[in-house]
Amino acid sequence: MLPYNHTSGSRSFPIAMSLMANEDGDVDFPEFYKKAHKSKKTGDWIDPKCGELHDDMVNLQLTATDAGLPLTHEEISRQVLGEKKNYLRGCGIGPKPSSTASSAARARDKHMESMRVELEVLREQRQSDHEELLKEKEERQRDREELLKEKEERQRDREEITKEREQLIKQVDEEKKAREAQGVQLNHLNDVVSRLTTLLQGSDGHPIIRF
Q1: pTM (two decimals)
Q2: Where are the domains of the chain?
């Protein structure tokens, strides 16, 4: 009833899976599913849905492993592809689920679902914490930029005040020099007037020249 077939050829799935089993007899089901549903010529999925299901298998396998509850290939098949009596979905006829796929397996599936929900909550919380840290970092950066801007403005104000002070001092010095020059000229004129007055007066103090 699936809208796609497989690419394993005439070799039975139990044999194909046994060839991929490790020393403990375990099978990497997502990897087996990928090899059985990708074109041998192009390397593309025989149907886009197969790629989506494979990603779901990989994510489920990683979640279970991280939680310390690794799943069998049968459990992965049931949880991702759904249950079907006498064979595993997506793998044709067989391999038949073992007798251990009973109420204990369903209880484990339920526990795994609970673990997935908990992990999702933790991921959301971690994402929220990460966003909060980024927000705080941005706020601290803005505060540093504002402080730097204020520091630069204060520095400019000090430089302007220093420049104005230097100009004022220069102006005061120039006015002082001008007053000193005027004083010298005034003293010189007074001296000239005094000598002229002395020359124009006689020994008795009366002017020599009368008008």
Answers
A1: 0.39
A2: 13-101
